[in-house]
Design brief:
The complex is a heterodimer.
Chain A: E1 8-9, E2 17-22, E3 25-30, H1 35-40, E4 47-48, E5 55-56, E6 69-72, E7 78-79, E8 90-92
Parallel strand pairs in A: 2-8
Antiparallel strand pairs in A: 2-3, 4-5, 6-7, 6-8
Chain B: E1 12-15, H1 19-30, E2 36-38, H2 60-64, H3 68-83, E3 88-90, E4 94-99, E5 102-107, E6 110-115, E7 118-121, E8 125-127, E9 140-142, H4 143-153, E10 155-156, E11 161-166, H5 168-180, E12 184-189, H6 193-203, H7 207-220, E13 224-225, E14 229-236, E15 239-246, E16 252-256, E17 259-264, E18 266-268, H8 271-275, E19 280-283, E20 288-291, E21 298-300, E22 303-305, H9 315-333, H10 341-360, H11 365-369, E23 376-378, E24 383-384, H12 385-393, H13 399-406, H14 419-430
Parallel strand pairs in B: 1-2, 1-7, 2-3, 7-22, 9-17, 11-12, 11-17, 12-13
Antiparallel strand pairs in B: 4-5, 5-6, 8-18, 14-15, 15-16, 19-20, 21-22, 23-24
Helix pairs in contact in B: 1-3, 1-9, 4-5, 5-7, 6-10, 9-10, 12-13, 12-14
The chains are: A mainly beta, B alpha/beta.
Chain lengths: 100, 458
């Protein structure tokens, strides 16, 4: 799932960078970014809907709608809008292949 | 009044650290109590006065505009109470259930419980949304989300944004995005000029704010259109391409975009109030169910409500009702409480203003009832208007029965974003009022609780 990022940074751009992996590729975002911000800096969407053909990219950003849960290579999912990005995270926009 | 020292040991829990929760805590602390404040935010302030993460550098004036003074006052007040050990703060923590005077919480350290004697719920609100065909795609957000992205992360959620809906947040978010340098293509208000004029008299209860609203409109210039009917969101695999809409004269328009922000005022967050046993009444003004309470926010034995989770009156009223709820709590404990007369008078003025807003920016009930069968109403599980109508035709003319038959409201948001639109679809199909469609019963846990959090660490 590559493509231009969805977001446009308008302020607070002078923050140190944080490295993480998105769909296996090394990328970076900024200290203080949420997982949602970090992923959408590199992709237009976060995940595929389980119930339809369309993709999802979060909806409420305040932890109420649960639209932004995304996968990690290690298995557990994260609520992207309320989880701060951490160095070395390995995030996936699709379920890992081993997932039953 | 003689005060029993044991009363000061009363365990008071406050859920929410927005303006209502902070002012409630302040009043309890001033009376010598030590409240426990549980909040989903990493830092206090709530959504309206949300603080960016540590290390961000924009000033309060840049973040909160003319409300910077109020935001800073609340932030520093709360910080001081925490620093002085006057209250216990559980940040980034959700209350997922409550029963028998016990809150079940889930936070950074995993699950836990908090026993309380009295409970103040200041749970706030989320955007009230009215589905537009195509809204299930990536890149469709609430207006609140657009504002949170800007305030807490310094970004726009698209490079060509269209905002659609109605209510004070529509104009405010539009103006904030424009000022921050985002490309806002259009701000489409479903309220007509006639709607807006009908609320104007009551909006003059707060003349300064009414004038500020007009100033924000001026910032939007020709981007702003009133009396719009949104028709559909055209999208590809990466998100929206365009919003199709009709203007007040019925002419069709197609506005290219890569993100849409939508919202029609607010929906009170009442799941915990429901679990706590509150009775609910349907508010014709707000087109939603609100918990029954008295003027000070008493809603049951040892239960108090404040802020937008109780009545959708906005941030200033949240500070007032936070103080009132704390006063009611103190009165019930037999502890001398500050007078409530001034606050009650102020609240009456704020209520008049809010009534004006509700009239000026109405909920689009008729459009929802007419949505095509293939329109998705529940965004979590893609339940369509047609599936709901099918459930109604099988006898499910009530929200909880329709939930069982169609899964409307059974998804991960637990009905927060589909309940009200779903009620209109049910009511339309059953030829009754939205009130007759009833209210979804809340179910614990009210936030997703990963089972891993409850398994022993090995």
């Amino acid at each position: 799932m590559s493509g231009p990022g969805r977001i446009q940074r308008l302020a607070e751009k002078d923050r140190p960078s944080v490295r993480f992996h998105l769909d296996g590729k090394p990328v970076s975002a900024l200290v203080g970014d949420t997982v949602l911000t970090a992923v959408l800096a590199h992709a237009p969407r976060l995940r595929i809907s389980e119930f339809g053909l369309e993709a999802r990219a979060g909806f409420c950003l305040m932890g109420a709608c649960q639209d932004c849960w995304i996968w990690q290579e290690s298995g557990p999912r994260l609520r992207a809008c309320s989880t701060p990005l951490a160095e070395g995270m390995r995030l996936l926009t699709a379920p890992p292949e081993v997932w039953p | 009044m003689s005060e029993n020292p044991a009363m000061k040991a009363a365990r008071i829990a406050i859920v929410g650290a927005g303006p209502a929760g902070i002012r409630a805590a302040e009043r309890l602390v001033a009376a010598g109590l030590h409240p426990i404040v549980i909040d989903e935010g990493s830092r206090a302030g709530g959504q309206i006065y949300r603080q960016p993460p540590e290390g961000f550098t924009r000033s309060p004036a840049e973040l909160y505009g003319p409300e910077a003074g109020k935001a800073s006052a609340l932030h520093s007040l709360f910080q001081a109470m925490v620093a002085d050990g006057r209250l216990t703060h559980h940040p980034a923590t959700s209350v997922i259930a409550l029963r028998d005077h016990r809150l079940h919480i889930l936070g950074p350290d995993g699950p836990g419980t908090i026993v309380y004697d009295r409970l103040i719920l200041a749970t706030g609100a989320s955007d009230r949304v009215a589905p537009i065909p195509g809204w299930q795609n990536a890149g469709i957000y609430t207006l609140g989300a657009m504002q949170i992205a800007l305030k807490a992360q310094g970004l726009a959620l698209g490079r060509r944004i269209v905002l659609v809906g109605s209510g004070p947040l529509l104009t405010l978010v539009g103006a904030q995005l424009v000022k921050a340098g985002a490309a806002v293509e259009a701000v489409l208000d479903t309220a007509t000029w006639r709607d807006q004029a009908s609320g104007f008299g009551d909006l003059l209860a707060r003349p300064g704010l009414a004038i500020r609203g007009l100033g924000l409109r001026a910032t939007l210039g020709r981007r702003y259109r009133a009396g719009v009917v949104p028709e559909r969101i055209e999208a590809n695999e990466n998100g929206p391409i365009a919003l199709h809409w009709r203007d007040a004269r019925g002419r069709s328009h197609r506005t290219p975009c890569d993100a849409v922000g939508m919202g029609w005022h607010l929906k009170a967050e009442t799941h915990l109030a429901g679990l706590a046993g509150c009775t609910f009444d349907y508010s014709e003004r707000w087109h939603q169910w609100l918990p029954r309470m008295n003027a000070l926010g008493r809603a049951g034995e040892g239960l108090y409500l404040a802020g937008d989770g109780a009545r959708l009156l906005g941030a200033d009223a949240a500070e007032v009702t936070g103080r009132l709820a704390a006063s009611a709590c103190l009165q019930d404990l037999g502890i001398a409480a500050p007078s409530v007369e001034t606050d009650l008078a102020e609240l009456a003025r704020l209520e008049r203003f809010a009534a004006g807003l509700a009239r000026a920016f109405p909920w689009p009930a008729a459009r929802l009832r007419d949505l095509a069968d293939d329109t998705i109403i529940c965004r979590c599980e893609n339940v369509t208007a047609g599936a709901i109508r099918e459930a109604v035709s099988r006898g499910a003319d009530e929200a909880n029965r329709a939930k069982s038959l169609s899964r409307l409201g059974m998804g991960r948001c637990q009905g927060r974003y589909c309940e009200l639109a779903g009620a209109e679809v049910i009511a339309g199909a059953a030829s009754c009022a939205a009130k007759e469609a009833g209210r979804l019963r809340p179910q614990a846990p009210i936030r997703p609780a990963p089972i891993a959090a409850y398994l022993p660490k090995s």
